Amino acid sequence: MQTRHRVIPGSAANIDLPPETVDLVVTSPPYPMIEMWDQSFSGQGAGVASHLERGEGPAAFEAMHRVLDEVWGECYRVLCPGGFACINIGDATRSIAGEFRLYTNHARIVVACEALGFQSLPAVIWRKQTNAPNKFMGSGMLPSGAYVTLEHEYILILRKGGKRVFAPADRERRSKSAFFWEERNSWFSDLWDFKGVQQRLGSNEARARSGAFPFELGFRLTCMYSMQGDLVLDPFLGTGTTSAAALACARHSIGVEADTGLLPVIEGTIEAGATLGNERQLARLRAHEEFVRRYEADKGRSPGHTNTTYGFPVVTRQEIDLVLPSATAVHRGTGHEWVADHETLHDHGEPQLDLF
Question: Is the pTM of this model over 0.85?
Answer without folding.
Answer: yes
